[in-house]
Specification:
With 425 residues, the chain is of the alpha/beta class. The structure holds zinc ion. Zinc ion (ZN) binds next to loops.
Length: 425
C-alpha cells in the first residue's frame, strides 16, 4: 500500500512536472500595414467619408497572441474608427488554431482612416471601398496566423497607473475622464532576445482625432507616434487598445484663447507622451514569471431603437446579420492575463460606465478594451440617455435607452462568473 502511495506521488510529480512545462506562457506579435494605395476617403463618423490628398504615418493591424497550455487568445488592434463584427468574423474564419470566441478585435478609433462601416447616406449610397475592407480582413488573419507560428516562452510585466501630463480631457466636462493607463508587456524568456519585450500593449481612453476627418489627410493620428516611440525605446511590437472614451474623452490639444493644435506635430507630442508614460508605468512593474491565462466570452443582444442606427444597420452594404428583427448581437470577452483583468466594450462607453465596470473587476489591474468586437455607437447609462442637451448627438448614436444597462449587467455577470485575476504582490 505504501509503495502504491509512493508510486502515485511519483507519477503525480512527473505529471505535474510535464504539466507545468506544457503550461509555460508563450507570446508573439505581428504587424501588417493597411494603408490603402491609392489613398481612400476617411471617415470620422456617420455619413459619407471625406476625400484625402495626403497621409501622415501608416495605418496598421497589430496582433498579440498569447498561449498557455491549450488556451490560446489573440488581441488585435486596427487603426480605424470602428470595426464591425461582420468584418471581424470574416477574419476569425481565416484564423487557424484559435477558437473565434478567443479572438478580440478592437480598433484605435482614429478619425482619419477609411470608412469600415459603409455608412449609407439618405439615398442609401456609401463611400466605403468594400474591396479594401475585404483585403483588411485577410491582413488581420495573416497577422494573427503569423504570430501563432512565432509563439515563444514569455514572462509579463503589468501596470495600471495615472498617465500624467497633457494627454486627454473630456470635451463636454473637462475633468470627467479616467486618467488610468494600463500596460501589458510580454517579455521573451528564452532565445537571443531574452529579457527584451515581444510586445507592449497600452490601454487608455482617448479620441485619436487630433487630425480628424476634414483635413484631407489619412493618418493613424496620435497612435502612429505612440507605436514608433515605444518600439524605438524598447523594441518589440506596440499595440494600442482604446478604453471608455465616449461622451467625449478626447486628445488634449487645447491651446490658449480657445485654440486647438490639429496637426501631425501635436499627434507626435501626445503619442510620445502617452508612450513615455506607459513605459514609465510598466518599467517599475515586477516580472510575472508564470502568469495565468483565462478567456471567457458571451454574446450580448441589444435592441436597436435609435432611428439613425436602425437606418445604418438596415442599409449598409456590409449587410448586418440579425437573427431577430431590431436586435444586434456582440461578443463580450473577459480575459485574465496574470494580474490583469480585461473586459471588452462593443462601442464607445462613457467614462462613468468605465469606472463602474472597472470597480467591479476582481483585480487592482483593471483594463477595459473599448470599441472591441464591434463599435455600436456610444454606450450611455439610462439616466444619461437623452438627458443634457450636450448629450443629444451621443444619444442619437446610441442603440437605445437601455444599451448601457444591458452592457453593464452582462459585464458584471461575466465578472462575477469568472475567476479573479492573480493578486498584485
Ligand atoms: Zn467617438
Amino acid at each position: 500500500m505504501k509503495q502504491c502511495i509512493l508510486l502515485t506521488a511519483f507519477l503525480l510529480a512527473l505529471y505535474t512536472g510535464n504539466f507545468s512545462y506544457a503550461q509555460t506562457l508563450k507570446a508573439a506579435a505581428s504587424v501588417r500595414i493597411i494603408t490603402p494605395n491609392p489613398l481612400l476617403p476617411v471617415s470620422g463618423g456617420v455619413g459619407l467619408p471625406n476625400a484625402v490628398t495626403s497621409k501622415k504615418g501608416d495605418l496598421f493591424v497589430r496582433a498579440l497572441v498569447l498561449e498557455k497550455g491549450t488556451n490560446r487568445i489573440a488581441i488585435v488592434s486596427i487603426d480605424n474608427l470602428g470595426w464591425s463584427s461582420i468584418l471581424g468574423n470574416k477574419s476569425r474564419a481565416l484564423i487557424k488554431g484559435i477558437t473565434p470566441a478567443n479572438i478580440l478585435i478592437g480598433c484605435t478609433h482614429t478619425h482619419s482612416a477609411p470608412d469600415a462601416y459603409a455608412f449609407p447616406d439618405e439615398k442609401g449610397k456609401t463611400g466605403a471601398d468594400l474591396k479594401y475592407l475585404d483585403w483588411c480582413t485577410q491582413q488581420i488573419a495573416d497577422a494573427v496566423n503569423e504570430a501563432v507560428k512565432k509563439l515563444a516562452p514569455a514572462t509579463l510585466k503589468i501596470a495600471v497607473g495615472e498617465a500624467k501630463g497633457k494627454i486627454a480631457y473630456n470635451y463636454y466636462a473637462n475633468e470627467l475622464y479616467d486618467p488610468r493607463c494600463g500596460v501589458i508587456q510580454a517579455i521573451a524568456a528564452e532565445g537571443n532576445n531574452k529579457g527584451k519585450p515581444i510586445a507592449t500593449l497600452v490601454n487608455y481612453a482617448i479620441h485619436p482625432e487630433v487630425i480628424g476627418s476634414e483635413q484631407a489627410i489619412l493618418s493613424p493620428d496620435l497612435c502612429g507616434p505612440l507605436y514608433e516611440r515605444i518600439e524605438s525605446a524598447v523594441g518589440g511590437v506596440a499595440l494600442f487598445m482604446n478604453s471608455a472614451q465616449g461622451g467625449m474623452v478626447t486628445a488634449d490639444n487645447r491651446r490658449e484663447n480657445g485654440k486647438e493644435a490639429n496637426d501631425w506635430q501635436e499627434c507626435i507630442r501626445i503619442g510620445n507622451l502617452l508612450a513615455d508614460e506607459a513605459l514609465r508605468l510598466v518599467g517599475a512593474a515586477p516580472e510575472q514569471k508564470d502568469p495565468v491565462l483565462y478567456c471567457a466570452s458571451r454574446m450580448i443582444e441589444f435592441p436597436v431603437e435609435s432611428p439613425m442606427m436602425q437606418y445604418i444597420i438596415e442599409n449598409s452594404p456590409l449587410k448586418h446579420p440579425h437573427a431577430k428583427p431590431g436586435i444586434v448581437t456582440a461578443q463580450l470577452n473577459l480575459l485574465n492575463i496574470g494580474t490583469a483583468e480585461i473586459v471588452t466594450v462593443p462601442g464607445e462607453a462613457l467614462p462613468n460606465i468605465g469606472y463602474y465596470v472597472k470597480r467591479h473587476m476582481k483585480t487592482s489591474h483593471p483594463f477595459l478594451f473599448g470599441l472591441t468586437n464591434d463599435a455600436y455607437g456610444y454606450i450611455l447609462s439610462k439616466v444619461d440617455f437623452n438627458s443634457f442637451k450636450r448629450y443629444d448627438y451621443i444619444s442619437q448614436t446610441c442603440l437605445g435607452e437601455l444599451t448601457g444597462e444591458i452592457y453593464m449587467d452582462a459585464a458584471l455577470k461575466l465578472i462575477a462568473e469568472s475567476p479573479a485575476a492573480e493578486s498584485v504582490k
